Amino acid sequence: MSKLQELYASMGISSTVYEYGIKILEKLEERFQKIDQTAEYNQLKVIRAMQEAKVSEACLLGTTGYGYNDLGRDTLEQVYAKVFHTEDALVRPQITCGTHALALALMSNLRPGDELLSPVGKPYDTLEEVIGIRPSRGSLAEYGITYRQVDLHPDGSFDFENIRKAINDRTRLVTIQRSKGYQTRPTLSVERIGELIAFVKEIKPDVICMVDNCYGEFVEEREPSDVGADMVVGSLIKNPGGGLAPIGGYIAGTRECVENAACRLTSPGLAKEVGASLGVLKDFYQGFFLAPTVTAAALKGAIFAANLYQPLGFAVVPDSTETRHDIIQAITFGNPEAVIAFCQGIQSGAPVDSHVTPEPWDMPGYDSQVIMAAGAFVSGSSIELSADGPIKPPYAVYFQGGLTWPHAKSGILRSLQALLDKSLVTEQSLITQL
Ligand SMILES: *Cc1c(COP(=O)(O)O)cnc(C)c1O
């Protein structure tokens, strides 16, 4: 037994699981090389932006109070704008999470009487209450903003005919979710997002195209803002925070869209001029600097998991060979016990809270119980190795993250071991693959 395998064994990974993992990895070398190339490209993009914006040591310090003339905050927003190739950006700890960033982008750019269109089906669960699909206090619906949705075709392609019909005089903003979220539809590539935006703009050139970019940042060499999106929006406790940002969200886009968002976040008249950065800037900068390689680690983990679970007979989306456009891996287990065991396995492999056992709970914003495995340095951070499973059919887990590839790998092996220990997977099914 190698020293590595001994260490794994001491942490509860059986030799069957360990060897099965090695077997799977042998096939993935070439794909991992491609991921490293993308990471290199994106790393340079970030470094160049930081150099062009003249990030200095002074930028890493924060302000308090009103936060007037916050050099670090204003420079960081320039860095984001340069990386996303947008006119401006809003990157703030006052944006509390991804849902807040998206709500802010929507509420600030829509006015009563306007209509919002999602041409890619139902948006992420938490946005249902923002939009008012599920009635909720303060929703867009309460402000007289209507919503229309065109579902994807069953094969995942755009329903261009019905999108054309859905666009009308009142359509002001089109929201496009890049990642599958809690669905099993395919994630959209930047290329496909570009095609959709071009189609929409041809029908109505002045419509605002917003992309929910959560989990998509740095997965490809281009971002949706490179293919016509007026706004890209995301969370700093996902990819762009690089695991270090302790809070925050961003909106990068046209000057007009970002100004609207700033006026709503702070106040009309104050806009981007206020909003103290407190002590978070060093982590925002360093996290953004690390984000391309952290995203690469998470991507490797997702691909490893797909390749590990697919041969065992579980449906995986994306499948073991598909190209990747976000860091989420869905694995459909078909029963709640396996969802729970998987999440408990991930948790047991964490650096923090490995000794606690996650259980399903009623999480705010979701319409069923959800079990979450985290064990993260930043609470709820899903760029760190984490898994969420809504306790409802088809009993799928959505797994993502891993700040480093070795942690992603070991956590995934733990998940498989947990299924094996609970007899939800048989040892024989692994051995036949060796
Ligand atoms: C995570 C996520 C959100 C919401 O972000 P939170 O930080 O959890 O509020 C929205 N859309 C997508 C696609 C996401 O993955």
Describe the 3D structure.
The structure is a single chain. The chain is α/β, with parallel strands linked by helices. Helices cover 40% and strands 13% of the residues. The chain has 13 helices and twelve strands. It has helices at residues 3-10, 15-26, 29-52, 71-84, 98-109, 125-131, 160-166, 190-203, 255-265, 281-309, 336-348, 405-421, 427-431; strands spanning 88-92, 115-118, 146-149, 171-177, 208-212, 231-235, 249-253, 315-317, 329-332, 370-373, 386-390, 396-400. The strands form two sheets. The chain has a seven-stranded mixed β-sheet with strand order 1-7-6-5-4-2-3, sandwiched between helices. Strands 8-9-12-11-10 form a five-stranded antiparallel β-sheet, covered by helices on one side. The longest helix is centred in the C-terminal third of the chain and has 29 residues, at 281-309. The relative contact order is 0.14. The chain binds pyridoxal-5'-phosphate. Pyridoxal-5'-phosphate (PLP) is lined by residues 97-99, 102, 124, 126, 177, 179, 181, 212, 214-215, 235.
Cofactors, ions and other ligands in the entry: pyridoxal-5'-phosphate
Largest sheet: 7 strands, mixed
Radius of gyration: 22 Å
Strand-and-helix sequence, N→C?
HHHHEHEHEHEHEEEHHEEHEEEHH
Terminal-residue CA separation: 17 Å
Low-pLDDT ranges? none
**Overall pLDDT, averaged?**
96
- By DSSP (H or I, 4+ residues per run), the number of helices equals 13
Strand residues, percent: 5-15%
As a percent range, the share of helical residues equals 25-40%
**Overall SS class:** alpha/beta
Using the alpha-carbon principal axes, give the shape. Answer: globular
List how many beta strands DSSP finds.
12
Strand order of the largest sheet: 1-7-6-5-4-2-3
